[in-house]
Amino acid sequence: MTGMLLSRHAVSRRTVLAAAFALTAMAAPIAMAQDAYPSKPVKIVVGLPAGSFTDLTARWISDELRNALGSTFVIENRPGAATNIATGLVARAPNDGYTILLATNSNTMNPSLFKSLPFDVVKDFQPVAMIASSSFLVLAHPSVPANSLSELIAYGKANPGKLNIGSGGTGTATHLAIEMFAQRAGLDVVTVFYKSSQDTVTDLLGGRIQVAFAPVNTGIQHVQSGALKALAVTASQRSDLVPSVPTVAESGLAGYDAAMWTGLFVPAGTPPEIVDRLSSAATRAVASEDLQSKIKKSGGDPRVMGSKEFTDYVQKDIVKWSETVKASSIKPAD
Q1: DSSP 333
Q2: Would you state the pLDDT for residue 4?
Q3: What is the Cα–Cα distance from 273 to 57, expressed in whole angstroms?
């Protein structure tokens, strides 16, 4: 009887050990795959055309990631539908770290600008690292009796419905930046829409509009020549290209931040080890003098922000733009 019990215990023990070895064997390839990441080419999907600042940012960071992680990073441009085509493609990709989205502020604006999207920016993605941001300049024609943003706000309040501000098309980043500015300043303004920021600045130079929100690198030469006045920048931090120009927040509208940004997203469920590896490599790259120089020369500002901080930023950005759109006359697209 004792022998039978011992035999049964032995069998039971062998079974447990065999099961443990089997689980270890199954887990080993997964752990090795994560440790070896990346072991094949990685695709970075960009929702804007080649040659744009976003595309350039993707190419710069891909070079840095290749050097840091020892694998090829390939850029795939999939423009269209306000970056929703590219975003949807990555949302449907395997969550193995081999398909990355070069995300932009469009990803936090679009949930409020479209009635329905085939993905959820919060649930379907894991932010990895912010790379860069850029700002709009609040530009004024010399004829406008304001040399600061606070003076412009006072002028606008004294002339309700008469202050014309140039913007990109309906629902663009410049449009939402102007809406948020008018809401927080308590202004009644007339937004004039243009096809491009260059067209906006051209009409501002000609005096056909009084104020414009335009990218720093579009308006800076006209500020330097004295043809236009720079009253503020719209991001939460000053631009290195115009360091003497204060932010909108510094000028009296606390908490105002209308930055354009770029960063890396991966599909939700990507192993934390891979997210951490990508995040560490990206933040080290952005902190490097070489990449910072490239970003600044193209009109951007380097932003070193890891996964946790970037995740918090994205969630707050979605709420901010949702509140802005709800308080405006913008009608979400189908």
Answers
A1: B
A2: 41
A3: 24
Three-state secondary structure along 234-293? Answer: CCCCCCCCCCCCCECCCCCCCCCCCCEEEEEEEECCCCHHHHHHHHHHHHHHHCCHHHHH
Q: Check if the beta carbon of residue 103 is closer than 8 Å to that of residue 129.
A: no
Could you tell me the CA-to-CA distances from 292 to 92, 217, 282, 296, 301 in Å, in that order?
32, 16, 12, 6, 8
pTM value is 0.86
Provide the 10 A C-beta neighbour count for residue 289.
8
Residues facing 165 on adjacent strands? 191, 211
pLDDT of residue 35: 62
- Looking at residue 334, its pLDDT comes to 85
Domains of the chain with bracketed CATH:
42-134+259-326 (3.40.190.150), 136-233 (3.40.190.10)
Single-letter amino acid, residue 80: G
**What single letter denotes the amino acid at residue 83?**
T
- Residue 22 has a pLDDT of 47
- What local confidence, expressed as pLDDT, does residue 299 receive? 87
Q: What is the pLDDT of residue 19?
A: 45
**β-bridge pairing 189-193 and 163-167:** parallel
Which residues in the chain come in under a pLDDT of 70? 1-35
Placement of tokens 């412009």 in the chain: 152
